[in-house]
Structure formats: structure tokens, C-alpha cells
Amino acid sequence: MFRSAVKLITPWRLIMAAFLATGAVLVFFRFTRGLGSITNLSDQTPWGMWVGFDILAGIGLAAGGFVMAAAVYVFNLKRYRPIVRMAILTALLGYIIFIVGLILEVGRPWNMWRVITNPNIHSPLYEVSLCVMAYTMVLFLEFSQVFFEKFGWNRLMAVFHRLSVMLVILGALISTLHQSTLGTLFTIAPSKMHPLWYSPLLPVHFFLSCIAAGLGMVCFESFLSERFLKHPPRMDLLSRIARFMAVMLVAYFIFRMGDLAVRGVIGLAFTAGFAALLFWLENLLFVILPIIMVFRRGLNIGRTSLFIVSFSVVLGFIMHRFNVAITSFQLVKDAGYFPSWMEFVVTACLISAGFIAAGLAVHLLPVHGGETEKSEN
Amino acid sequence: MAIKSSGLLIDITRCIGCGACSDACKEINDLPPEIDDKLTAETWTVVREKDNDLHVRDLCRHCVEPACVASCLVAALTKTEHGPVVYDESVCIGCRYCMVACPFQVPCFEWHSPNPRIRKCILCEPRVAKGKSTGCAEACPTEATVFGDRETLVEMARARIKADPERYHDHIYGLDEVGGTAVMFLSPVPFEDLDFNTDLVNYPLSDITWNILRQVPTIVAGGAVFLGASYWLFNRREKVKKAEQVVGPGPKKEADDV
Asked: Is the CB of A43 less than 8 angstroms away from the CB of B199?
């Protein structure tokens, strides 16, 4: 306890504090002088980094929550129980951060309640909004078991146990819908996107890739958790997760390339140029490198290798979402968009807030439940 | 005259680029008088001059089945019975999905307002609802922009091409593009030479998203059955194992591996 009090100020905390302070100023400008005052968005590029990163990538990376919950509660893979709470916590924080990000991103957030009173069921974005609201509640209920355990509310815990499977199935269904529908959003703009990223099957691309990316994030955050919270990663579990992730990546890649071939645009991937370069860089990071590293070592994969694999998957996944939301549009009609430094800072703020919240939750709540407390400092 | 579904026919061969349409638009819609060089929140129609001495108007096309209307999650954008696609700022959340969806890059956003709106041509909806013409058509000195019933305008366009095939490129832009638009164009040259989006499908873009969204009930039902059955199957194995432990180990020990 005493040592942690002395080490209250660390370099990482200083950096996060600096981000949060700058971010607060930027948010003030955003709400008084409009989105144009801090972003490089324009009528030609209405969606930029915040949509690509905070929303598309953020929600996709939080998919580990529903995948791990389904693995443990539906498919009865009990061995993953020690990390399911952490996965659900990450997802819950991810969605809360996403909602905060959305309030900054949309122009008139005070009208957001209109989604309830003025629904347009023909809009994919309506389905996403509804699902995100519902799923955030489901995640909160799924995570509530941690509070019940912490405060010894055994009655509520018993109720939770009885309802948990229903809740997890509901969560998995809602996730399937909105993870894929985030891809559906872009299917309405065929003429505005580069064919290497546009596809009428984008919802399937988004769904397959989010499962792999969510699992990659589960591995990645286990290493972060070790670095920052001194909680050793469960390599026995992570290596199995990585193996399943690699299988999903293979499925995704076959589907992606098959889709390009069927639509007759696969040649573009082999035509020298910026688009093909981006395409292969994205797939190298997201698919090819991770698959090779995981299948070469199997379950004996080392810590460093698994760290590289998970980092690569997360990075490649973010790149895919950026390419869909931003680059593929710019490749067709260059509007010269590049995020302003202020857009980066606001995104860094959201990530910092997520780190702080995750750190607090792990310190205060039995997130790593069901394990022996061997490494408390 | 009762108008069923109104529209505009813009004949690029007749346009002299005087900009009277932009001025009239500014006045009628109470917009600041400066005319920007492209569509903005404060300029709803603009005349571009092409190097081949042609003048091309840009404005909202008021699609028959608009992508922006389908994409708007709170139905802030609607198509009225008279043809105009109009906007209701009281429900808009400012998500800008309409701007992503629009194949003509028409809706603009008030980037520097703390209470930003989507802004675009509304085909003079208050006037059209009363049976009047749009401001731009009324102001046009050469009848390059003509207001009327969409079906009548299509006939007029066909007649013009037929009467003078030398003068016109044989295509009515907006007749079939994205399922048809209320604002249509005639041109002396192919439309790609005028930087029109010629990479458009001939059906409403909202068909694409709706054909996917239609599958939602099936996906939910199928997913529920799959997950429910999986739960039953995998937990039954558990129960069998427990029962075996009570009775004594069975002949074959259930492996924990999957």
C-alpha cells in the first residue's frame, strides 16, 4: 500500500493527465465553436478518425466480451472463466467510451434521445444505435456479478447465475447484429469507395474480423495488464485463444479474397499503387503475420511472440476499419483529409480514460475472480 | 395545377452561366449572398464552369428513393409527396451519415456552429407545396432550368434529344441513376466529361442496405436456435459427467478438450 502511494506519479500517469487536460480544452472548443474548429472534417469528408477509430475499431475490439462470454457460458469452456470477467470489463468500458466518443462526434448530441421517438427502421445506423444501447445494458448486467461478489450480495448473485445464460445469449445475438451492421453502413456508398474495401458483403467481413480482433484484444490486454497492473498473463489460456483467433483469421481471409475474386476486382490487389500497398500492409498485420506466427508454434507460442501477434492483429484491424471508413473514400476522390493533432489528442484522451477506469476497476473489484491471489503488491 | 411529383430539367446546352439561379436561391432561402465555388451549408446551388465552355449547375437531385432519407436514423430527412427532400433540424442528431450515403455529395454541414445543421437545397418546398415553381427555375433567363412534373420533364427531355440529336449526348442523367432523380440533366457531351458521378447503379441505393437489414429477424432466430442448442448440448455433457461421478466412473472418461 505504502509503496503504491509513493509511486502515485508515474511517467505514464503524467502523460495521461496531460492528454486529459488538453482534451478538456479541445472539448470546450468543440462545443462552442463547432466540430470544424478542432477537426479536419469537411463536407467532402464527413466521417474521419473518430468514426474510424473510436467507433468502428473501438466496438470491434470490444467483441472479445461477447465471444469469451459465449465460450464460457454457452459452450461451457470453463477453463476460460478466469479471464471472462476481464473481457466483459473491457467490452463494457469500450462501449461506455464509445458512447462518450459519440457525444463528441455527432453534431447535435442533445437530440440523441430522438432515436427512441423517431425510429427509421430502414437505416442501418438506427439498428446500430439500438443494439449499442441494448448491449451496453447487457454488458452492465453481465458485469454486475463482480459487484455482487464484492459486496457479498449472495441473493442477487444467485439470480444472476440463473439468468446468466439468457443474458449471454442475448448479448451474443445483439453483438452479431451490430458488429455486422457497422459494415452494412458502408454498403450504401458503392460508388464512393475503393473496390478493394467496398463490398455488398461488408457486414460479413465486419463480423468475421471482429471476432478475431476481439480475441486479439483479449490477449493484448492481458499483456498490458501484466505491464501496468502486475497481473501475470495466463499463457495456457491465451495460447488456445490465439489458436482459435488464427482459425477465424484464416476464415476471414479466405472470405475476403474470395469476395474480391467473385466480384472480379482481385486484380486491383496486385496492381502496383497506393491502394494495393495499403491492402497488403493491412492484411500482413491483421492476418498473414499472426497466422504464420501462431501456426508455427501452436500452443507452445512464447510470450514475446504472442505479444507481437496480438499487437499486430489489433493494429491491422484498426487499419482495416480506417481503410473502410476513410482511405477507401479518399482513394476514389481525394479530399486531402488527414486527422488534425486535436483529433488525435481527443482519441488519446478516450483511451487514457479507458485505461484509468480499467485500472481502478481491477484495483477495487474482483475482476480476476476465481483465481488465487498470488501476486498482490 | 396539382403537381404529383415535381422536379427540374437542367439543359446544360442552354445554360449561359449567369448565376441567376444561385442568386434567387440565396434570396428565397434567406442565405448570405456570397456564392461559394462549391456546395456548402450556405450555397445550395452553384454553377460550375467547365473548361469546354460549359456551365453545370450542382444542387440536390431529390432522388425518387433517396439514400439520405433511408440512411437517416431519426428520419430527419424525408421526401414529401410533392417531390422535395426536406430536413427537420429538430430531430437531427448531426451524425452526418446522410453525407456519407449521398452519391452526389450534396448535404453539407455547419462545421463551425455549436448547434450545427445539415443544409441543402429543399427544392423550394414551401413554394412547390403551393403549386409554384422553384426560385431557380423562375429566375433562369434561358430556360436552362425548367420546373415541372417529373414525368412531363422526362417526356420533354426525350423530345429535345429526338428533335436535335446533334446537340445532345443521348442520355438523360437522373432518369435511371440510383433509381431515378427528380432533378435531371441534358448535356452536349458525355457526363463523365463534366465530372458527374457516372459509376452509379440503376436501382435505389437503399435497396442494398434494406436487403441486408431484412435478414435481421432470420439472423436473430437462427442465432438464438444455434446458441440455445449449443448451450443445451455442451451443458448436457456436463450433467452426464456429474451423473457418472455419482454412479461411478463410466466406461469412457469424457475428455475436457474441445
From this structure: no
| CA distances for B21 relative to A226, A356, A370, B48, B128, angstroms | 66, 56, 72, 12, 16
Report residue B204 as a C-alpha cell: 435505389
Whether the Cβ atoms of residue B123 and residue B150 lie closer than 8 Å to each other:
no
Annotate A273-330 with DSSP letters as a single string: SHHHHHHHHHHIIIIIHHHHHHHHHGGG--HHHHHHHHHHHHHHHHHHHHIIIIIHHH
A23, amino acid identity:
G
> Would residue B148 count as lying in a domain?
yes
Lowest mean pLDDT among A67-76, A366-375, B44-53, B79-88: A366-375
Interchain pair B237, A76: CB under 8 A: yes
Query: Following CA atoms A45, A49, A50, A51 in sequence, which dihedral angle do they give, to the nearest 10 degrees?
Result: 60
Virtual torsion, Cα A78, A83, A86, A90, nearest 10 deg: -90
Angle at A80 between CA A61 and CA B242, to 5 degrees: 145
Pick from B70, B49, B63, B50: nearest CA to B5: B63
The predicted pLDDT at position A262 comes to: 96
Task: Quote the crossing angle between the two packed helices A341-364 and A81-105, to the nearest 10°.
Answer: 140
Q: Cell 420546373 belongs to which residue? A: B147
Q: Which domains does chain A have, with CATH numbers?
A: 21-26+46-364 (1.20.1630.10)
Interface of B with A in 188-227 (CB under 8 A): 197, 199-201, 205-206, 208-210, 212-213, 216, 219-220, 223-224, 227
Question: Is B87 strand, coil or helix?
Answer: strand
Where residue B140 sits, what CATH number does that domain have?
Answer: 3.30.70.20
Parent domain of B219: 215-247
> How high is the ipTM of this complex?
0.90
- Total-model pTM: 0.91
Residues B155 and B237 in one domain: no
